[in-house]
Structure formats: C-alpha cells, structure tokens
Design a protein that fits this description.
Layout lengths: L7 E5 L4 H11 L5 E6 L19 E5 L5 H7 L5 E4 L6 H6 L2 H20 L4 E7 L22 H20 L3 E6 L1 E3 L8 H10 L4 E4 L5 E6 H14 L5 E4 L4 E3 H11 L7 E4 L14 H6 L7 H14 L1 H9 L1 H11 L4 E4 L3
Parallel strand pairs: 1-2, 1-4, 2-3, 4-5, 5-6, 6-10, 7-9, 8-12
Antiparallel strand pairs: 9-11, 12-13
The chain binds nicotinamide-adenine-dinucleotide and thymidine-5'-diphosphate.
Nicotinamide-adenine-dinucleotide binds next to helix 1, strand 2, helix 4, strand 5 and strand 7.
Length: 346
Amino acid sequence: MAGEYIRSILATGGAGFIGSNFVRHVAAGDYERVVVLDKLTYAGNTANLAGVLDDPHVTFVQGDICDSELVFDLTQDVDAIVNFAAETHVDRSLLNAGEFIQTDVYGVYVLLEAVRRNALRRFVHVSTDEVYGHVPEGKSRENDPLDPRNPYSASKAGGELMIRSYCTSHGVPAIITRGSNTYGPYQYPEKVLPISITNVLQGQPIHIYGDGQQVRDWLHVQDHVEGIEFVLRHGLVGEAYNIGGGNERRNVEIARSVLRELDAPDDLLHFVTDRQGHDRRYALDTAKISELGWSPRVGLDDGLRETVRWYRENQQWWGPIRESEDYQQYFAQNYGGREVLKVGQW
Ligand code: NAD
Ligand code: TYD
C-alpha cells in the first residue's frame, strides 16, 4: 500500500482554502515533512496557515508551479505532490481566462515533468466535479465523458487530460480526485457561501444568479481533505475518484439557510442576471471511493451552522480581504452590472 512509504508531501496551493485545511490535517498526522508551495495570488494567504507555519515539520515556499526549476528542486526529496494550486473561480474565468490556462493546464504539465524526472511515488491532482459539465439527471461516474462548459472547468479538464497522457505515455503514478462544491473555514469570500455570509454580515444582499434553482452537491472541507488523503494512501494509480458530500441542494435553499442562521430577512435575497453558461446541476456518484473504504461524515446542517459561526467569529480574517483593492474591483466588475430581477422569494 502506497500510504506506508509516503512520508513527505509537497502541497502546491497549500495556502488556499482546501490546501490550507489539508496542510493543517496532515501536519497533525505522522508525516515527516510537508512542504507548501504557493504563489500567494489574491486567493492565497499565509493567514490561512495560522498555527501550522511554526510546526517544525512544515515549510512554506512562496513560488509558482509554472517555475520548472523551482518545482524540480522542491521535488528532489519528497515522496508525493498533492496539487491544490489553481485559479478556481468560474466568475473570474468568465472575465479573464488566461491565468486559468497558465496555472491549471501549463502548471500541471510542469508538476508532471517534475514527478517523472524525480521519480516521485505519487501525484494526487485535486480536480472538480465541474469537468463533467451539466448533469440533467442521474449522477456522474468516473468514466463518464468530460464536458466542461466554462473556462475554469475547461482548464481543469485540460490539466486532467495532460495527467492522463503522462500516465499512459510515461507511467507517471498519478491519481485524480474530483470533489464537489466545498465549504468551510478559510474560503475566500468570492464563492457563493462565503460571499453570501459576509455580505449579510455587512448588511448587504445575497446575489442569486438567475432563478436560483441550480443544484450543487455540498461537501465540508474537512471531509474533502480527508478524502484526498485517503486517495493518496489507498487510491490506485491511473484512476480518478469522485469525492462528494451527498448533499444536493438548490442555490436558493443554501441562501435561505444562510439567512436563517443569521436571523436575516428574506428581502436580502436578490435574484440577479444569471451567470453566462451557468451549469444547472452537478451530481456525483461516489460508489467508487466508498467501495475503497471512504465516505463523508459532516452533515450539511451542522457544517453550515458551524461555517456561518466561523465567519461571524473571524471578521479579522475576511474583513481586510473584502476591503482590499483587488476584491473591491472584482466585486464591482462581477456584480456591478447585474440587473436585480426580483427581491425576496422567487
Ligand atoms: P483557492 O482559490 O482557495 O486556492 C488556490 C491556491 O492556489 C491559492 O493559495 C493560490 O495562491 C494558489 N495558486 C494559484 N496559482 C498558483 C500558481 N501558479 N502556483 C502556485 N500556487 C498557485 O482554491 P480552493 O478552493 O482551495 O481549490 C483548491 C483546488 O481544489 C483547486 O484545484 C480547485 O480546482 C479544486 N476544487 C475546489 C472546489 C471548491 O469548491 N472550492 C471543489 C472541487 C475542487
Ligand atoms: P460557486 O461558489 O461560484 O461555485 P461553482 O460555480 O464552482 O459551483 O457557485 C455555486 C453556485 O452558486 C453556482 O450555481 C453559482 C451560484 N452563485 C450565485 O447564485 N451567486 C453568487 O454570488 C455566486 C458567487 C454563485
């Protein structure tokens, strides 16, 4: 079993939302060394690693996964890469796709070359359920065709195809995980849950795109990082594994839960101009990972309540982000031009 001889990990993108939760999780385990490589883009933040940066087993390096010399050096003496580094927000990919192609496709190629040349034992690549595209009925299985429909999911699918090619052509020991919509502490306030919670905490409305009937499957970040570590230790090389929470909800239901938790009125629900190419539904069949022995543990109601509480208690983390120039500019660009179609219940 690979897990027994994976003692050291390079966690790329480890200062982002899921990456930092992963680093905190594995730092509490019995690995000898965890190296974090992160470019610290607008989404990366060393504050996400509070409490682990001074752990003697953890090293932080600021840098780009597209920098092949740096990546080659850092992978000379680690057993595995777990790759979280990516441009990750669909709305930003609609405004400017260039960085997505650079990091999510070219960056993956750079990592693959390093895995190959330094003969690493594992490369776990963190991908997304969005690569399957809109799923009108049923659930996506790992062998279903990829059908990405926005620049973010297309670049993630591009990265996956590079991995597939390196597995086949060069025997690179890679495994792909496809996680569903993840939520929890330290998520940058641009994805729907943290932006909605922090908007309401500042007395602003929740912006629901279109009719709010789009469906996502919600996965708590602790479950997601445990699922990724499980795949690192027990997954089979050359395979992909869906990691889902088993919690399909319409966006409007998620928004209502936020309002309920914060005791805020329904007229803070603003239905606005829809996202371009908005996928109506994602849904994952998770039989493959559950047959291997892993399933999620956090219930959505508990997870949401705890997440809302975390944001309420950690304004010192998200306040400066929301005040930053980059954030203000993005917020104005993405939300400024949207028409309010309806207020309150749809
Ligand atoms: P995030 O945007 O919070 O963090 C991304 C991190 O990558 C940031 O710390 C950023 O600084 C870093 N980064 C970006 N470009 C880099 C580069 N070129 N070199 C080095 N570091 C770079 O993202 P997240 O939500 O934590 O997502 C992590 C991974 O999980 C991504 O690959 C994403 O596609 C995938 N994923 C996310 C979700 C979700 O709901 N958030 C669901 C499924 C899969
Ligand atoms: P998001 O968090 O951006 O994740 P993804 O696009 O990866 O699923 O969006 C989740 C859902 O919420 C998606 O259907 C788009 C919708 N959404 C809104 O309705 N309003 C918002 O302000 C945002 C950011 C998203």
